[in-house]
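Reminder: ligand-aware prediction takes two inputs, not one.
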Amino acid sequence: MFPERFLPWRNTWWWPRWRVPSFLMLHSVGEAVTDPCCANNTIRPDELRNLVRALVDEGYEFRTFREACEKGDRRTMCLTFDDGYADNYQVLLPILRELNVPATCFATNRGDASFPRERWSAEDPIPADAAFLTAEMLREMEASGLVEIGGHTAGHTTLTKLSLDDARREIDDNKAWLEGVLGHEIVSFAYPRGGENDQIVNLVREAGYRYAAAMVKKMRSVAADPYRVHRQIIPRGMETWKSVLLATRGKWKI
Ligand SMILES: [Zn+2]
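Here is what comes back for the chain with zinc ion:
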């Protein structure tokens, strides 16, 4: 019998890939780890450069989250960065310019000096020196023509842990701030920690969002559910060939 233990037939990189765009989920970019609780969330600049170059060489075309949802195909690759860390401006933006690829950053209100600290989620202890995208940074990133800004709630609380009224407030306050800063409607959203259910999806839709990035594991078409778009996590410290397989094939084992 075929030894599935050694060559598992499920979730393997050698399967033909799904005919859907690939969405990658990242957070910080930097040599130093931004959040010591989630070291894997900070990809090194060279790891990101090498991954993007390898994917471009393989013929993938990079799109923002909105574009990938609207008209992505199997050659579409989408970089998304959650949480709105300031290194997305300081480190990521120069890399996007250098490689001329777009990305989407899902930002909270934590870079707004007038946003009360009591409303910051206590779920992940934020290092005291962590910095978040300010209004000026968000505007400059968008003005580069390479960055789409999306919503990620005001204080980064897991929405499924809140009352519906509080969840709506988290979604709406974030959207209002970002739209005030950028001067136009935003249509893309990501659930903090992937926390969603049917009621939360309804709130996101009612707020006016058209697409939402989740953390569901299975690759599928955006049309199947534009409010639960699959993303693949790309961790820190992974060799390029492995992260390319992860990005293009989803979960893999060998
Ligand atoms: Zn997040």
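The pocket of zinc ion is lined by residues 82-83, 152, 156, 192 (CB under 6 Å). The helical segments are 45-57, 65-71, 87-99, 135-143, 164-182, 198-206, 240-249. We will return to this case in the review session.
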